[in-house]
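Most newcomers find our protein records easier to grasp once they have seen one. A learned vocabulary of local backbone shapes supplies the integers on the structure line. An example says more than a description, so a record of this kind follows:
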Amino acid sequence: MQQTYLRTLLMVVAIAFFVLGFTALIFPATTLLTFTIGLGVIMLVSGIITTMTYILDRNEIKQSGWVLADGILSFILGILILINAFVGIIAVIFFLAMWLIFSGVLRISGSLQLKEWDVNQWGWMMALGILNIVIGAITMFYAMFGGVEFFLFLALSFMVLGLNGISMYVLFRNFEIKRTGRYNEEIEVKEKEE
């Protein structure tokens, strides 16, 4: 039950990232301060959920310590962003770029592990990881040199993070079905009936 609940929360956070990116794409006049506060809240929640998922799933699914590091880093950066929203807007942009690159490396590492487990969709996670790294590097470049394009890449980066989370949800669900022949919810219902 806890795993299904946490995976559902992971999907909610992924959708929130995607919506945040889409909103930034549609309303470019939105202030960076408001955007920064939204980012801080989402990163804080994402860090908590990722850390909890790692702790609860570590015995069932062999996960890299990088997953835990990603959760802790997301949590810490979320708190820092919320505390220093007025002062650290430029720092937030650089932290975001580094976080995108770090998350991209994590996705690539995870995709290689999925390939080792013979999960067919590992290539999607690999492609999204590479896209994360590229958008993180571009975001850092535009943060240094400014420009209207920065908001475009910032919006795209959030949309890619959302797609990453959605793909992880689907991949873990497919892995669970492949491993057990059925999904967690079906297992829980059967256990309750017995």
Notes: The mean pLDDT is 77. The helical segments are 2-26, 32-57, 65-83, 89-116, 122-145, 149-180, 184-193. The radius of gyration is 17 Å.
